[in-house]
Write a structure and sequence with these properties.
Blueprint lengths: L11 H14 L22 H16 L4 H18 L3 H16 L5 H13 L3 H14 L4 H13 L3 H14 L3 H13 L3 H14 L3 H17 L3 H14 L4 H13 L3 H14 L3 H13 L3 H20 L5 H11 L2 H14 L3 H13 L3 H11 L7 H13 L3 H14 L7 H13 L2
Helix pairs in contact: 1-10, 2-3, 3-4, 3-5, 4-5, 5-6, 5-7, 6-7, 7-8, 7-9, 8-9, 9-10, 10-11, 11-12, 11-13, 12-13, 13-14, 14-15, 15-16, 17-18, 17-19, 18-19, 19-20, 19-21, 20-21, 21-22, 21-23, 22-23
Pfam family, one: TPR_16
Keywords: TPR repeat
Protein name: Tetratricopeptide repeat protein
């Protein structure tokens, strides 16, 4: 394939033309679904296939206990299991498996370094993850997994140009689902939404497993949702569910579409099943906010208490979820505590996300002059994200900068009028109040 195909960031016009041609030639998956909302049903345990894989790996290691690659793979599998289940105890199992691999092969063990990098990323120790990724690449320069570890760490550390360069190297070395999807995220952060969708279509064309198809369809759905195209978003989510019927991310996508169309009660039912299968903090917070938007305040408060307990358990295991904790505290708790959490996370990584969360936490704590600098930093790359624009607009409104606030809030609703069941209505209310000044 032509080298120009992967110059996603250096020759955008040429790449866009090539991408368009490939997508037109690709055979897509079109799903025919009945009208109406998805049926709410019990979601199978999404971790079951991975648990079975781990059980097989452990049996193999019982037979061949000195398999350094096998121990490293087991560690990586436990990292993924912790992500799916939100059970931090699996991080300890990952650490032990990776330690065993390194004990058996202390030198030139790229597999263990990649596993440690994935674990460090999961634990939000992005500086360590960057170092592990770099060390692994020194041993195995063409490793897609090592590039993935490095790219993820650089992106979270806010080293945008270095992340883009690393994505380009990964594309040059091994174009495929891991590189195309990371290119898509890099493009999205830079405001190139159409190019990001094109890269995801290339990833979908390259996908060979149900999990890869589901992953690509989910992120295509997210791009569509984030631009307010609910029909396209639902089509992508449901096409993904054809490949992976119990995929919780895709189920979450369809629930968000249900809420965006105004059926809050139906969305709450879908989130009940979703959070029973995958009780991760992000999903639980969204469920609580849906309950709040549906005026079910006591139930919402109970959910928020449950999330606080999960954060406590995570912290006991050495896992810090400061972003979600800051979100919870800013919206449903103590804004001063939200600022503390956000500052702790910003101290570890200066990404678009952490800049935005710190800006919003400072705003909720009444520190709008400080908040604006972080809001400006969050928007510097050009990401077209409704929540970012809304946060910046509300900060500007609090500072009395009426015209700029109105422009930012208008932009948020133009990007995605359905971005939040709680905050989209507040954006409209604030706009109306600004117009009356």
């Amino acid at each position: 394939m032509s080298e120009n195909l992967f110059r996603v960031f250096r020759t955008p016009l040429l790449v866009l033309l090539v991408l368009t041609g490939l997508i037109a030639a690709a055979v897509g998956v079109t799903a025919a679904w009945p009208d109406g909302s998805p049926t709410v049903e019990t979601i199978a345990d999404p971790s079951a296939p991975l648990r079975a894989e781990i059980a097989r790996a452990r049996q193999q290691l019982d037979r061949v206990p000195d398999n350094t690659t096998g121990w490293a793979a087991l560690g990586a599998a436990y990292v993924e299991l912790a992500r799916i289940t939100a059970d931090p105890e699996h991080y300890g199992a990952a650490q032990r498996a990776l330690d065993r691999s390194l004990e058996l092969k202390p030198q030139d063990n790229a597999d263990a370094l990649i596993g440690f990098g994935a674990l460090a990323n999961a634990l939000h120790d992005f500086t360590a993850a960057r170092d592990y990724g770099a060390r692994a690449l020194a041993l195995r320069p063409t490793s897609a997994d090592a590039h993935g570890v490095l790219i993820d760490a650089l992106t979270q550390l806010g080293e945008a140009d270095a992340a883009t360069a690393a994505v380009q190297r990964m594309l040059d070395l091994r174009p495929g689902v891991p590189s195309f999807t990371r290119a898509a995220y890099d493009l999205e952060l830079r405001g190139r939404t159409d190019d990001a969708a094109a890269a995801l279509r290339m990833a979908l064309t390259a996908a060979t497993t149900a999990d890869q198809i589901a992953f690509c369809r989910y992120h295509l759905g997210e791009l569509a949702f984030d631009t307010g195209d609910l029909d396209r978003a639902e089509s992508e989510y449901r096409a993904g569910l054809l490949a992976s019927p119990d995929n919780v991310a895709l189920r979450r996508g369809t629930a968000r579409v249900t809420a965006a169309r105004g059926d809050l009660e139906g969305a709450v039912e879908q989130y009940e099943a979703l959070t029973a299968a995958a009780p991760v903090p992000e999903y639980l917070i969204e469920k609580g906010e849906l309950l709040e938007a549906a005026r079910r305040q006591e139930e919402a408060a109970a959910v928020f208490r449950e999330i606080s307990e999960r954060f406590r358990r995570l912290e006991e295991q050495g896992v810090t979820e400061y972003i979600d904790a800051a979100h919870l505290a800013a919206e449903h708790g103590d804004p001063a505590e939200a600022v503390r959490f956000a500052e702790l996370e910003f101290g570890r990584r200066q990404s678009v996300i952490t800049s935005d969360v710190l800006a919003w936490s400072l705003h909720k704590a009444g520190r709008d002059a400080e908040a604006l600098g972080y809001a400006d930093r969050a928007s510097a790359l050009g990401w077209r994200n409704a929540s970012l624009a809304y946060h910046r607009g509300m900060i500007l409104a609090a500072l009395g900068r009426v015209d700029q606030a109105a422009a930012a809030l208008t932009s948020a609703l133009e990007i995605n009028p359905h971005f939040s069941p709680l905050h989209a209505p507040r954006a409209r209310q604030t706009l109306a109040a600004l117009a009356g000044r």
